[in-house]
């Protein structure tokens, strides 16, 4: 047979005719040379993983099929779910027992992949996270913590929440108190213009709340000069004379418009005049 037609091991040059051999990157090797050159060592037994064995790998680590076992209970992990912890491979049961969180209610392990609830460092099976009042699973619905319990919104409102004096619905967050009664912020309104009063200055009349503008328009005395309301609630200064009132800035001579605040003045029928203009009359 011509040399060009020989089938030899690329490494040891032994003839491969009639023998088992392995191809790697278009090059043939006898099984012995292939194992010496390329076989991976098993992580468990440290022996080479030969051509007649399955090579099971995980993150650049290799095992014989019979060596691929849970690092704690030694059960085979072949074709089974497993988890890695440090350098160990563990079956899901061993991993859950040692490393998974425990349910705060039933104290049992919450298995990986199962639905759970977490809140402030505690964990629950989804079916164990119950409303403290109705004992129904809260699941993914909203809940409200109170003391050492957890309540669905409906039960919290029934047991703890104040009822708004305006709309009669529960106040779950915020709110204001007026005349020892609770109100939603959005329900506490001026009786006149219905503007929200929460965070604003307001006053009352006959137990009804008013914004300063409405109260002034309805009840404040009017300035003789500009006819606009005079209210001390807004910090306005005013002058009063013979049951008539003026804003300080409006208390001026009817003829020359000089301010009369702190000065003498004269009256002419309903008009007020500075002393100079009054003498000229």
From TrEMBL:
Its main location: nucleus. One of its GO terms (molecular function) is transcription coregulator activity. This is LIM zinc-binding domain-containing protein. Residues 40-100, 101-162, 221-281 form the LIM zinc-binding domain. The lineage of its organism: Eukaryota, Metazoa, Chordata, Craniata, Vertebrata. CDD domains: LIM1_FHL, LIM3_FHL, LIM4_FHL. It is found in: Nucleus. Keywords: LIM domain, Metal-binding, Nucleus, Repeat, Zinc, Zinc-finger. GO terms for cellular component: nucleus; Z disc. SMART domains: LIM.
